From TrEMBL:
Coiled coil: none
UniProt keyword annotations, A-Z: Membrane, Transmembrane, Transmembrane helix, Transport
GO cellular component, one term: plasma membrane
Localization annotation: Membrane
Domain of life: Bacteria
Single annotated GO MF: cadmium ion transmembrane transporter activity
Main location class: membrane
Single GO biological process annotation from the record: intracellular zinc ion homeostasis
InterPro entries recorded: Cation_efflux_TM, Cation_efflux_TMD_sf, CDF_Transporter
Segments crossing the lipid bilayer: 7-27, 39-59, 71-94, 114-130, 150-169, 181-202
Membrane topology (UniProt): Multi-pass membrane protein
The protein's name: Cation efflux family transporter
Length: 298
């Protein structure tokens, strides 16, 4: 079994456990922020399952219906994941503001402190595990999970800090502020967390719409300008895109009259030189290089 899939399976089990614990304990303790933490992990578990399915699809060979492979599914999953998280953050923000306006709620801080400590430890361990795995794999799917576990750890640490503060305020002159701690920390968490899924949605949307990355376009254009100067190509056109882990490059070259009688083997040599300069050789690269003497085919 691929290491990527094994890592995703471990993520699913861990997030299901944390999600169930968080939602149940949050409802029992009456803490909106803990329920939010549980829902955050629940969404992670669903997305991890979907990521596992995508990971298996990406290992399959292109078929009759998907002749260019399944790379396009990866950004679709990321867009869905980010959109759900944005929706959750917006909903939680509305609830937290409503809670502040209603005067907050009293919590049993000793119990919620234990919960926050346990979840922070578990999330931190999962973050360390996935980080070690992805040093070699460099998987986009695992990277998203890695970021999710980092956010989950940050959420739990923030809850631990907030609840510990509330515990210390009990019996002091500031005890009247303790009911506001839960909705206040939820408000701060949502405001801090929402930019990350927004960036995920934007990045995925650009890949779904096949928007060419500026850096990638400049690299191919610069490469072909140098090749044209070296071989005397009259002109060229190119089309590049990156979808998920797939790199798509199409190049059409207008040959000069002096290359009319070049054999196919020599043109293949030029093609191989261009391919080597582009790099990223492997199953995730889709490269097509054509030669013509007719400008209309550019």
């Amino acid at each position: 079994m691929a290491t990527e899939q094994r890592a995703l399976q471990v993520t699913i089990v861990a997030t299901v456990l944390l999600a169930g614990t968080g939602i149940a304990f949050g409802l029992f303790a009456g803490s909106q922020s803990i329920v939010f933490d549980g829902l955050f992990n629940a969404i992670d578990s669903c997305m991890a399952g979907l990521s596992l399915l995508v990971s298996r699809l990406l290992l399959k060979q292109p078929g009759r219906r998907f002749q260019r492979g399944y790379w396009h599914i990866e950004p679709m999953v990321l867009a869905l994941y980010g959109s759900v998280l944005v929706s959750l953050c917006v909903y939680a923000l509305i609830n937290s503001v409503d809670g502040l306006m209603r005067g907050g709620q009293v919590l049993a801080f000793d119990e919620v402190i234990v919960y926050a400590w346990v979840t922070a430890s578990g999330s931190g361990l999962m973050y360390g595990y996935l980080r070690r795995c992805n040093r070699r794999l460099r998987s986009e799917l695992i990277q998203i999970d890695l970021h999710s576990w980092l956010m989950s750890t940050a959420i739990s640490l923030a809850l631990l800090l907030a609840f510990s503060t509330g515990y210390l305020l009990q019996g002091s002159q500031y005890e009247a502020l303790t009911p506001y701690i839960d909705p206040l920390i939820l408000t701060l968490l949502t405001l801090v967390l929402i930019p990350a899924p927004c960036r995920t949605v934007w990045k995925a949307a650009k890949q779904i719409l096949r928007i060419t990355p500026t850096t990638l376009d400049s690299e191919i254009a610069g490469l072909m300008a140098g090749m044209s100067q070296r071989y005397g190509f009259e002109s060229f056109s190119h089309c590049v895109s990156r979808v998920g882990r797939g790199l798509f490059v199409e190049i059409h070259i207008l040959l000069p009259v002096s290359m009319n009688h070049w054999p196919v083997s020599e043109l293949d040599g030029v093609r191989a030189e261009i391919a080597a300069a582009i790099g990223s050789e492997g199953p995730n690269r889709w490269l097509a290089i054509g030669f013509t003497r007719d400008r209309r085919w550019l």
